[in-house]
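Model: You mentioned two targets. I'll fold them one after the other.
Researcher: Yes, keep them separate.
Model: Target one:
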Amino acid sequence: ATAALIPPDLAAQLRGMRIVAKLPPAAGPLGQNASRQRGQGLEFSQYRAYEPGDEPRHIDWKLFARSDRYFVREAESEAGLAIWVVLDCSASMAQADLATPSKHKLSIARTLAAATIDIALREGDRFGLLLLCAGQLTWVASARGPRHRDRCVLALTQAQAQGELPTLASLQRAWERIEPASVVILISDGFDELGSAFALQLAATRRDVRSIVLTSVDERDFDLRGAFMFEDPETGARLASDGAAARAEFRQRFAAARQSLAQRLATGGVRYVEHVLDQSLAMTLSAALGAQRAARQFR
């Protein structure tokens, strides 16, 4: 399943890459970066309400029998660094370049997400997945191992670009699932204010957040000729324009908007990396993850 998302040339470039964590966890025995964090270990920590994506075997059935509600039993476990991939699956992620209609933003986002998970798997770290689609949060709970990688890849292949991002109030639930000191990789097109606000709030609460913002070649170059009708896939708003007449103004305004977003995220402690669809995926991953081929370090 992973081979369907990660092309062979990229897979070869990923070999030996490691993720550089900005927030070093406490020492522990597992993973390249080991720490004490919430997980399914031996020492009980707390109960929390069951959410879609949690494994049924972690439900406390005795508590269910008494309360008629589902609760997940959390414990303190010694585990490696937690990697969370958060994927924007809103309708605008279906955008593709006119020259390569089959290569849309969501397909590139899936590959970036699968590659990140593949690196985390080889490092022995825990990894989880959060899909933001049609106003809903879809979770694949944090765990480790090849079988869990396959669950994440299946969720990625089934993800479709539709609707809008969930409200910021809905996104607040991520604080219970994405533990402090986690590395959070947010992949989006950078057009929705909710996504930026979510990244900044995570970074403000001791999460190591990296934002990969996807840009099409048409958006970067705006090399369009003739009359066009532009439509917002999420709101349906339309704007008629002539490509050549609008080119200079669009390029200037688009570049300014991207620069403003980059500065805002950087000020809030979020690493910003822009990926244009014709650029190297390996280079983008290296810039976003701090990936390297030497021993892992903190910075």
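Model: Target two:
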Amino acid sequence: MANQENDFYQKLRLKIEKWLETKEGKTHKYSEYLMAVPDLFHLIVRLMLDKGISVQDKVKLGLAITYFVSPIDLIPEAIVG
């Protein structure tokens, strides 16, 4: 499992790095934050696999992953601020 995690992690980082080298990537307003995405995802996955983390906290992490990757904005910033 660890090799699959690292493969996905490395592939995701590589894709983002390549995109950041493009004209669109260099001028995108969030480009400086995008490299944190694979690191955050990797951290959450590692925490989900950690036996020292409680089931309740793993549920919260699962919800965080779902919210992070969901195309539906459940809490619109335009309304909440």
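Researcher: Noted. Anything on target two?
Model: Residues 66 and 73 are 11 Å apart (CA to CA).
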